[in-house]
Description:
The complex is a heterodimer of chains A (510) and B (109). Chain A is an all-alpha fold and 510 residues long. Helices cover 71% and strands 2% of the residues of chain A. The radius of gyration of chain A is 22 Å and the shape is globular. Chain A starts with 6 loop residues before the first helix and ends in a 5-residue tail after the last helix. Chain B has one domain (2-47, 66-98): Helix Hairpins. Chain B is built from three helices and no strands. With 109 residues, chain B is mainly alpha-helical. Chains A and B meet through helix 5 and helix 6 of A and helix 2 and helix 3 of B.
Amino acid sequence: MNHIAIAPLLLPLFTGICLLLLREQRIYVKRIIAGISNIALIVIAIELLLQVADGTILVYALSDWAAPYGITLVADRLAGWMVLTTSMLSIFALIYAMHGVDREGRHFHIMFQLQLFGLNGAFLTGDLFNLFVFFEVLLLASYSLLLHGGGRKRIRSGLHFVVINVVGSSLFLFAVGTLYGVLGTLNMADLAVKVAATPPENLVLVHSAGMLLFAVFALKAALLPFYLWLPSAYSQTSAPAAALFAIMTKVGAYSILRVYTLIFGDHAGPLANLLDGWLLPMALLTIAIGTFGLLGSKRLRQQVAYLVVISAGTLLTCFSLNSEAGIAAGLYYLPHTTFATAALFLLADLIVKRRGLMEDRLDAGYVITQQKFLGAIFFTLAILAAGLPPLSGFLGKFMLLQAALDHPAVVFIMTIVLLNGLLTVIGLARSGSLMFYEAHAVDKSTNTYNKQELPEPLNVRELLPIFALLGLCLAMTLWAGTLTKFTAETAAQLLDTKSYIEAVLGKGAP
Amino acid sequence: MEALISLLIGVLTAGGVYLCLRSHTFPVVLGLTLLSYAVNLFLFMMGRLVIGQPPIISADASGYADPIPQALVLTAIVISFAMTAFIIVLALKARTEMGNDHVDGKDVS
Lengths: 510, 109
C-alpha cells in the first residue's frame, strides 16, 4: 500500500502533538518546528499531486480493512489539488503569525497544526462519517484560532460562530444517520452504488438526507442564507487566522462538489443531480448579497470578509453548472481566490497597525507611514480580487463565463458575475481612496492621535507572505495553460464516477 | 417501542431547537446539549431496535445487533461532549468579557 496518501494527515497531527509536549519551550523552538513541518507538508503535497496527476486514484485502507468495511482515504486529483492549496496558504499564514501573533497565547502553533490535520483529512477521506469527524477536528481547532488573543468583539462573534457550527454538526449527524439507516453504508463509493439502487419506498428518506447534507455544506461554504456568521467572525479574528480561514469555506465547497458529483451525480438514478435548481440560484444570490455587503461595509476587514462570501458564491456558481468546463473553471478559481483574500486579510492587518485609533474604519484618516507602498499593494490586490485583467482572477471568471454560455440561465450568470466584478472594483476603489488619497497630513502640534508610538518599519515576516501570495497568483496566470489543463482533467475524473468506485471497491463492483 | 423512541427524539429535538433560539447563553448551551442527545439517540436507532442480540459474531447467536451505529454514536458522544465543554467555557468567558449573558452582549434586564 502506498503510504503517501496518509502522510498529509500524520505529519500535522504528530507535529501538533510534539508542539503540545513542547508548549513550555521558547517561542522560537515552536516556530522552527512548525515551519519545518509546514515546508515538509508542501513537499509531501507536491509529491502526492505528482503521483495522482496521471489519473491514478490512490486508495489507503486504514489498518488494511477493505472498503466498504473499514475507513478509506482516497487521493485523486481533486484531493491532491486541495491539499497543495492548503499547504501553500498555511505556510504564509504561519510566517505572518510569527511576527508576534503567535506570542499572544501558548497554543497557537498547536491549533494551527491541528487545523491543517482537519483540513487535509476532510479533503482525503472517502467516508462520510469520517468527513464529519474531520469537520469537527478542523472546527474545534478553528474555534481556538478564531478566539486566539481574546477581546470583547472577538468573543462575541466567536460565540455565534461556535453555536451555529455545533447546530450544523447536529444536522450533519442526522443526515449521516438517515443515510446509514436506509442504505447501510457510509463509504462514499459504496453510497454512490447504493443510492443509485434505492428502492422507491425509501427515495423520500434518501432525498431528504441528501438535502440536509447540502444545508450543512452550504453552512460551511457560507452560502446564502447561511453566510451570516462569516463577516463578523472573519473580520474580528487575528490576521493569520483569517488568512487560514480563507480555505475553510472552500472545504464546504469541496464537500458539495465531491458528494454531489459522486453520490448524487449523473449516475444516481432517480436521485440524479439532486441540487439542480437549488445550487445555482443560491450561489448567484450569495454573490449579489456579498456584493451589497462589500459596498456597505464600514470597515476594511469586513469588506474583505464579504469578498470571501462572494468568492464562495462564484465558486459554487462554477460547480453548479455541473459540466466539465464549469468545474474546471471553479477549480482554477479556487486557489486564486483563496490566496487573494488571504493576502488582503494580511494587508488589512498591516494597515490597521498603522492607522492607530482609526483601525480599519473606512474614513479619511491621517497619512500613515509607508503610505505609498501599502497603497500600491492594496490596489494590486484589489485588481486581483475583483477579477480584472490581466491577473488570474480574470482568467477564472472568463473560464466561468465561457462555461456558462450554453447553460439555460446564462443571462443571469453573466449579469450577476459581471456586475459583481464592476461593483467590487468600485467598492475597493472607494476604500482605497478614502484610506490613501483623502488622508490628511499630520499636524504635529494639535493632534493627539499620532502621539502614540510609530509602528516599527515593515518587517520581512509581514511582507514576504503578502508578496508570496501575490506571486502565487501571478504564477497561476503565467502557467495558466498547464493549470487549466490539469483542472480540466480533474473535472473529467470527478464526473467519471465509475473509476472512483472501481478504485475503492475493486474491479468487480457494480 | 419504535413510536415511543421516535417521539422521544422528536421532543428532544424540538426542545433543543426552541432553547437554541433563546437570547441568553445558558439556555442556548442547554439547547445544544438536548440537540446532541437527540442526534445520539437517532444515530443509535439507525441500527434498528434489537433486543438481547450480540453485536459481534458468535456461534450460537440467532441474530445480530448492528455494531456500526454503536461505534458511530460513541464517536458522536465524545465529540459532542468536548464541544459542550468548550461552549460552556466560552459562554462563561463571554459573560465576564461582556458583563451579561445575552448572546449579542446587549444589556437587557
